[in-house]
Amino acid sequence: MKQNASFTQGSIARPLIRFTFPVLFAMCLQSLYGAVDLLVVGRFGTAADVSAVSTGSQMMQMITVVITGLAMGTTILLGHAMGSQNKRSAGKIVGSSMVFFVLLAVGMTALMLCIAQPFVRLMHAPEEAFQKTVWYVQICSCGILFIAAYNVLGSIFRGLGDSGTPLLTVLCACLFNIAGDLYFVAVLQMQAAGAALATILAQAFSVLLCIVVIRKKRMAFPLTRQDIRLDKKIVGRILKVGLPVALQDGLVNISFLVIHAIVNGLGVIASAGVGVAEKVCAFIMLVPSSFSQSLSAFVAQNIGAGQKERARRSMLYGMAASLAIGMVMAYAAFFHGGLLAGLFSKQDEVILAAADYLKAYAIDTLIVSFLFCYIGYFNGCGSTGFVMVQGIAGAFLVRIPVSYLVSKTAGATLFTIGLATPASTVVQIVLCTLFYSYVRQKEKGDL
After folding, report:
1. Between the CA of residue 215 and those of 97, 201, 283, 364, what are the distances in Å?
2. Helices 286-304 and 348-381, interaxial angle, to 10°?
3. How far is residue 41's CA from residue 151's CA, in Å, rounded to a whole number?
4. Alpha helices, DSSP H only, in 382-419?
5. Is 410 left (phi over 0), alpha (psi -120 to 50) or beta?
6. CA–CA gap between residue 93 and residue 73 (Å, rounded)
7. Residues 205, 218: contact at Cβ < 8 Å?
């Protein structure tokens, strides 16, 4: 409970940074699941294998972000409960979340196994990589239960103000995944299918570690067997908060899938290049993403405690810290993109294509810190409906149409296609600033 109290009392910057860095490192390690897959396959496979893993992992990322978005409902409700010292409610929230996410995972697994092949076809996967992509998606889909379990357990820890435990478990699982990739891909030569198998085994290992920690750790709230049931009212509250986040994240991810499908039409080299670039971008975007997740929990506890001004100040601190680190990331992506891409591929053409695409993402890195901290703040306040609206607007009114129109122009490059992403971010920041000003004015009017 000492960690929870520090969110609502004392300084803001130090506890926020201290909470964010374990979240950042945990997300970094989570990204290594797909990155190590691509790195090992890039070293021991062909361009078709790289294309299969890059396209397949993008599809699985959509599943992950939907689950993570729904789990945000648990984080926010639990943060509100702990901020208001309602421990009994906290236990019921956790129990209902556990049952709900297990049922959700089973349904999503069945769905993905059925639609994997037509989904890959819809993605315009290059013909030489088509079957490998299908195998990758089907094998990874068998691990959706572990993805759901890890994310809901992580949301519980973050809602309690504990970002260290998820970091420890994902660190062990990442090492497990690296060993699995080297064995299945490098030794057994299973290529894309081997990378997928290593990933789901590592995810299962991370869930097992979380369960072991929970059994040994004294929880900050009571959790009884009676709490572990599907309480419709609590699930309704989780969905009310988490569903807009999940829809926003899922639809935004679909927009990136559409862009990937557009690029797939340019050939296997462009497909592999964008796949490599997106793995690099996954790491670059971890800093603003980690501040967004941390702010959601930080702001939720302060809103629960009735400290709105403290919540607003935490958002500004998050923006400043995220931007400072983001400037370093932007420099690396713009001027040394080829070096970063070379970690994931040994083919010069793929590296050059990835470096071209990374220049556009470098621009986005300079401004996305403001957007993600806005999103974290609004999520913590429970304004997830607006978060959904601005995300969908940016994705479907800017990112997709701009990338499509640019791809049809003469002399289009991966850099010019990639500029659709920072263009979308600018529009979303404007929307967030207007909404923030509207809320502030409304609060002053109520006073």
Report:
1. 18, 21, 32, 42
2. 10
3. 26
4. 384-394, 400-407, 414-418
5. beta
6. 10
7. no
Are 47 and 350 within 8 A, CB to CB? yes
Q: Which two tokens stand for residue 30?
A: 């989570």
Taking Cα atoms as reference points, which of 215, 214, 223, 218 lies closest to residue 91? Answer: 223
Radius of gyration of the chain (CA): 21
Q: Note down pLDDT in tens along the chain; length 447 residues.
A: 334 445 667 777 788 888 777 777 777 776 666 667 777 877 776 777 777 777 777 778 778 778 877 887 777 777 777 666 767 777 787 778 888 888 888 898 898 888 888 878 877 777 777 888 888 888 888 888 888 887 777 766 765 666 677 777 777 878 888 888 888 877 887 777 888 888 888 888 878 887 777 667 666 666 667 767 777 888 888 888 778 877 777 777 777 777 777 777 777 788 778 878 877 877 778 788 888 888 887 888 788 777 888 888 999 998 998 898 889 888 888 888 888 888 777 778 888 888 888 898 888 888 898 999 999 899 888 888 898 889 889 888 998 899 889 888 887 888 888 898 899 999 999 999 999 999 888 877 654
156, 162, 166, 168 alpha-carbon torsion, rounded to 10°? -150
Token pair, residue 446, equals 């109520």
Q: Which two tokens stand for residue 445?
A: 């009017």
Query: What's the distance, Cα to Cα, between the start and end of the chain in Å?
Result: 33
Q: Are 221 and 87 in contact (CB under 8 A)?
A: yes
Joined together, the tokens standing for residue 424 give 């979308």
Say which residues have a Cβ less than 8 Å from residue 315's Cβ, sequence separation at least 6: 295, 299, 373, 374, 376, 377
> What residues contact 138, with CB distance under 8 A and at least 6 apart?
112, 113, 116
**CA atoms of 279 and 346, how far apart (whole Å):** 15
Decide: residue 297, CB within 10 A, 0-12 exposed, 13-18 middle, 19+ buried: buried
Amino acid at 175: L
Residue found by looking up tokens 């080299």 in the block: 269
Tokens at 395, concatenated: 């994705």
Q: Taking Cα atoms as reference points, which of 293, 250, 236, 372 lies closest to residue 76? A: 293
CA distance 79 to 85: 10
73 CB-near residues (< 8 Å, 6+ apart): 237, 238, 239, 240, 241, 242, 243, 245
* CB count in 10 Å sphere of residue 273: 31
Question: Are the C-beta atoms of residues 185 and 197 closer than 8 Å to each other?
Answer: no
